[in-house]
From TrEMBL:
Domain SusD-like N-terminal residue range list: 100-230
Example of a GO cellular component annotation carried by this entry: cell outer membrane
CDD domains, per database record: SusD (cd08977)
Location(s) in or outside the cell: Cell outer membrane
Annotated protein name in UniProt: Putative outer membrane starch-binding protein
SUPFAM superfamilies: TPR-like
Pfam families (UniProt xref): SusD-like_3 (PF14322), SusD_RagB (PF07980)
Species the sequence originates in: Sphingobacterium detergens
Segments forming domain RagB/SusD: 270-517
Main location: membrane
Signal peptide as annotated in the record: 1-21
Length: 517
């Protein structure tokens, strides 16, 4: 399987059309530079495949699903920054001084770059003479990636007052920037169209050749549709597409929670959509999140960055006996394997929190893992573990939440008990939305499922963020427990993030900042 992962990652690297992120002055930053001219490109099957490969190129960028996007997750009550970092604290405290800083400024333009690549495929590939089955898959990959990018953009930047720009084949050549959609509902309609088209065009995962694992597939499109409908509060359709994943998608739960986060199970039953990753080559390829969350300095053996540390509030939220707690969190005194030897966890001296996420540690557990399980480049800490973006357990949680919202307490018991049983917890009846919120938190902590966005959409963010957060046992110089002060969250402003300043500036006034920011 390591060979398979390496093949697809290097295919994506070598086959992609170059994309530059230099800011431009009169357009939304979505134009690829250095690509072949249109006159010489988009003629053959090979061109179409290379174009599809380019959809995934940015999955290797450290700020895509490694550090940059995770700064938004760091606003939740599940984690603190872990190191003294002023810009990071501005983000998690909703201080507008973060606007224009490098940590999150590229999130918008990177996603629009993928949308641009998808639009190129949708414009040119239909006219290429090639195998129709392969053509449909490539068009489906374009529709899926565009739909997924729009979903993440809409979730983070759009509301009922203003959506995000909808850039299509028809308007992508406009000299002026594309204005924002009227509202998030317009974005949802466009996302729905893209993902339904993708689902119609894409094969099931088990119909892909092994060398193509990591490409978009039908069930991934259904899964994102289900999550989009949940965010839209269209619970009937959220259930409809969750059921399609559950009943037709040939997916399921891993037998144990820890199995989800083993590289051997990258393509196991729980997989729906992940960041395909590998330690191969000089730099590795894929998500560096495992190394970003690794204790700063990694006890002298590697270059962990020590960001996104779990809070005592997260630790205490687990029920007694929940197998997910120790599988998710390392606390002082816990034993774990690292570089082939058993260690007792202790935080770095520079850490501001005394715990670490444990979910992504399996690649580091092996003897001499560098080059075989962990990237040789300690500044690009990709591993052989594919970092999940959406997995089967989340689909069960989406269905359970939607059923509770429609039919009240107990309506999600079946799905919630499937998750509880795997966590070695007793089954319960009559579970409420409060139970659902805890199960979602405990199952998905530290993942890109986005606890912050959950708290916002539930209306819980203001009250939750007003409360202080704590370390497990760390004390300050006066011997007092370390406390992270509560934060002021204004639900009329902070329910969306600020539009990156360069997009506002470069659009000649067409792209407006979110109100209040």
């Amino acid at each position: 399987m390591k060979k398979i992962t390496r093949n697809i990652c290097f295919a994506l690297l070598l086959g992609s059309m170059g994309v530059s992120f230099q800011s431009c002055t009169n357009k939304l930053d979505i134009l690829p530079e250095g690509a072949p001219s249109k006159a010489s490109y988009w003629k053959t099957k090979e061109d179409a495949v290379k174009g599809a490969n380019g959809l995934y190129n940015l999955y290797d960028d450290e700020d895509f699903y490694g550090r940059g996007f995770a700064w938004f997750l760091n606003a939740s009550d599940d984690m603190v920054t872990g190191r003294n970092n002023a810009q990071a604290e501005n983000i998690r405290t909703f201080n507008r001084n973060y606007i224009g800083g490098g940590y999150t400024e590229s999130q918008w333009q990177m996603r629009y770059a993928i949308i641009k690549q998808a639009n190129e495929i949708l414009r040119y590939v239909p006219s290429i003479a090639m195998d129709e089955k392969l053509k449909n898959r490539i068009l489906g990959e374009a529709n899926f990636n565009a739909g997924y990018m729009y979903f993440q953009l809409a979730a983070n930047y759009a509301d009922e007052r203003a959506g995000v720009p909808i850039v299509t084949v028809e308007n992508m050549d406009n000299e002026k920037a594309t204005p924002r959609a009227a509202n998030v509902e317009e974005n949802y309609l466009h996302i729905e169209k893209l993902l339904k088209s993708a689902a119609d065009q894409l094969p099931f995962f088990d119909e892909l050749d092994v060398a193509d694992y990591g490409r978009a597939h039908k069930v991934a499109a259904w899964a994102v549709l289900s999550k989009m409908y949940l965010y839209k509060k269209d619970y009937k359709n959220a259930i409809l597409y969750a059921d399609m994943v559950i009943n037709q998608g040939k997916r399921g739960l891993e037998k144990s929670f820890t199995d989800v986060f083993k590289a051997a199970n990258n393509w196991g039953p729980e997989y729906i959509w992940s960041v395909t990753s590998t330690p191969a080559g000089t730099d590795g390829w894929g998500s560096i999140l495992p190394g970003v969350m690794l204790t700063n300095g990694a006890w002298g053996l590697y270059n962990g960055w020590g960001y996104y540390m779990p809070t005592k509030e997260l630790y205490d939220s687990y029920e007694t006996g929940d197998a997910r707690r120790e599988a998710t969190i390392l606390k002082p005194g816990d034993k774990f394997m690292f570089f082939g030897s058993e260690r007792i966890f202790a935080p770095a001296g520079s850490a501001t929190c005394d715990m670490q996420f444990n979910k992504y540690m399996e690649p580091f557990s092996h003897p001499s893992p560098i080059g075989t399980h962990v990237s040789p480049n300690g500044n690009h800490m990709a591993t052989d573990l594919n970092v999940p973006l959406i997995r089967f357990a989340e689909i069960l949680l989406i269905k359970a939440e939607s059923q509770i919202m429609l039919n009240g307490a107990g309506a999600g018991d079946k799905e919630l008990n499937m998750i509880r049983k795997r966590a070695n917890l007793i089954e319960k009846t009559g579970m409420t939305l409060t139970d659902l919120k805890r199960e979602r938190r405990n199952e998905l902590a530290g993942e890109f499922s986005d606890r912050h966005r959950d708290l916002v959409r539930w209306g819980d963010a203001e009250a939750t963020y007003a409360k202080p957060l704590h370390t497990y046992a760390m004390k300050n110089g006066s011997g007092m427990p370390i406390e992270f002060a509560g934060r002021k969250f204004d639900p009329k402003i902070h329910h969306v993030w600020a539009v990156p300043q360069q997009e506002v500036d470069n659009s000649a006034g067409l792209i407006k900042q979110n109100q209040g920011w």
